[in-house]
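Hi W., the DQA complex you wanted:
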Amino acid sequence: MSKELNNIKKICVIHGPNLNMLGHRDKEQYGNLTLDKLNKKIRMFATELGLEISIYQFNSEEKIIKTLHRSRKLYHAVIINPAAFTHYSYAIRDAIELLTIPVVEVHLSNIYEREDFRQTSVTKEVCVKQFYGKKENSYTDALKFLHDLLNKSS
Ligand code: DQA
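Structure:
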C-alpha cells in the first residue's frame, strides 16, 4: 500500500432507528429522500473529499453501541444520526463519550423547531459538533467538517 493510501481517513456513518424507512416518513421533515439516495450522496461527497466511508443503519441500541465500540480501532471519526435515541439514550451517550476519535451528530430535520421531546439531545455534549435541519446536507456538512479537522491534526 502506498504512503498516500495509508493516509486515507476512514469515516464510519451510523444511521439510527427508523431511518431505513425514509421515503415513508413525514415528508415535511424528511422530504422524499430514501436511505438509498441519502447513502449515495454521502458516498459521492466522501469520494470527492478523498475519504473512505462505511455506512450502517441499525434499529437496535445494542448494535449501535457495538459499532461505536468497534469504531475505536477501525476509523478516524464517526458521523452518527442517533434518531430517536438522541433524546434519551444515556447508553449511546456513554459509548460516544469513551471514544477518543471525533464523533459528529447529525439530523436531517431541525430538531429545535419540532416537538418538545425532540429539542433535547443527550448525545450532543459528547460530540465535537452537531449539524441539523439541512436534510442530506447535514451529513455532507459533517463530512466536510471532519475532512478539515482530520487534515489539521495529521
Ligand atoms: C432525526 C430526528 C429525530 O427526532 C427522529 O426521531 C428521527 C430522525 C433527524 O434526522 O431529523 O428519527 O434524528
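Residues 18, 81, 83-84, 86, 107-109, 111, 118 surround DQA (CB under 6 Å).

W.
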